[in-house]
Amino acid sequence: MTETWNKRTKLVHGGTRRSQYNEVSEAIFMTQGFVYENAAQAEARFIETGPDEFIYARYGNPTVAMFEDRIAALEGAEDAFATASGMAAVNGALTSLLQAGDHVVSAKALFGSCLYILENVLTRYGVEVTFVDGTDLAQWQAAMRPDTKAVFFESMSNPTLEVIDIEAVAAIAHAVGATVVVDNVFSTPVFSNAIAQGADVVVYSATKHIDGQGRALGGVVLGSKEYIRGTLEPYMKHTGGSLSPFHAWMFVKGLETIDLRVNAQADSALKLAEALEGHPALARTIYPGLASHAQRELVERQLNGKGGTVLSLDLKGGKDAAFAFLDALTIPVISNNLGDAKSIATHPATTTHQRLSDSQRADLGISDGLVRLSVGLEDAEDLIADLKQALLPLS
After folding, report:
1. Other beta carbons less than 10 A from residue 278's beta carbon
2. How far apart are the first and last CA of the chain?
3. How confident is the model at residue 7 (pLDDT cuts 50, 70, 90)?
4. Domains along the chain?
5. What is the pLDDT of residue 1?
6. CA 49 to CA 55: how far, in whole Å?
7. What pLDDT sits at residue 20?
8. CB proximity list for 152: less than 8 A, separation 6 or greater
9. What is the DSSP track for 45-75?
10. The whole model's pTM is what?
11. Pairing mode, if any, of strands 219-223 and 201-205?
C-alpha cells in the first residue's frame, strides 16, 4: 500500500511498527539486546533474521527500522541503513564498497570531512581517487577508467551551491560499471529524486533537515537491498557506526514535518536571495533558485525548480567584512549546522572548510568573504530586514 501513497502520507505513516499496545506515536525501543524463547531460536536468529527479528542494537532495532523503512519509502529506495552520523554514512557507503586497487572519481567541491575521507582515508588503504569539476561532464568522462569502481559527489555542493547533473553523471559512470554514490543533503529528500535519476546509493546527514531542530546526530544510507544488506550492513554492524534508538525516534518524528518545513525554508531562502541580489556590499549572491544561477535549467529539471534552504553571500570586504556582518546579525545564530528551524550563519573559510589550503579554497570558490546562510523558519521579512541592517555599514 505504501507505494501508492503520496509523499506526505509516506512521511507520516511509512514504516510504522506498533507493539502489542497499539500506540499512536511510534515506540522507542531503548534496548541493546533481545530475548529468545529458547536456545534453538537464538541459533536460528543468528543464521537468518526476518524483518521483525532482532539480535543486537548494533545490528538493528525496531525504532531504527521504522526510520529506515520510512525514509526508504520517501526516497524510492529498496532499503536503508541508519548510522550514528552523516559522516558515518559517507564513510560506510564508500569504505564498504571499495578495496585496495579500486579507482574512484569524485567531484572536488566537497564538505571538508568528505574530502578527508577521499584524500586521506581511502588512499591510505590503496584506493586511487581522481578529482574533477563536478559540473563539467567532459571531465567526468575523461576521468573514467575500466577499473573505476565508484563515483562520489554532493548533488548540491557545500557551500558554493553548484548543482551536479545526477542523470548525466550516472550514465557516464554506469557505462564503465561504476557505482554512483550521491551525498544528497543540500538537495534534501523532499526536493530530490536521486534514485530515479540514476544514483545507486544516496547518503544523508539526518542531523540536518531530517531532524530539523538541531537536536541529534545521525545519518542514513539508501540503495538496493543487495547493497544495503550484502555490502553495507556487514561493514557497519561490525565497525559500530549504528544509530541509537532514541535518535532514530527523533528522526521518525522529524520526517512527519520535513515536507512542510523544507518547503517553507526554501520559499524564504528565495525571498532573501531576491532581496539581496545586487546589494552593493556583495560580490555575489549564490542561490540555485535565482533566475541568474548558472545552472537554473538543471535546477528546474532535477529539483523541480526548488533551490533548497541555503544561500551563500560573498562580501566584497573579505574576512573582515564577513565577520562584521556575522557579528551584526540579530536573528541568525553563528554556528556550523544547517537545515535547522533556526537560521544559521557560517563562515566556511574559517570553520567547515578551514582544513583546506588557500589554493584549494580559491579553486572551489570559497573566498574569505563567503558566508553560508541556512534559512530557518523565522518570518522572511524579519530575516530580510536583519540581513540588510547587518550589510548597511559595509555598503
Report:
1. 9
2. 57
3. confident
4. 2-254 (3.40.640.10), 259-394 (3.90.1150.10)
5. 57
6. 8
7. 85
8. 94, 104, 105, 106, 107, 114, 118, 181, 182, 183
9. HHH---TT--SBTTT--HHHHHHHHHHHHHH
10. 0.94
11. antiparallel
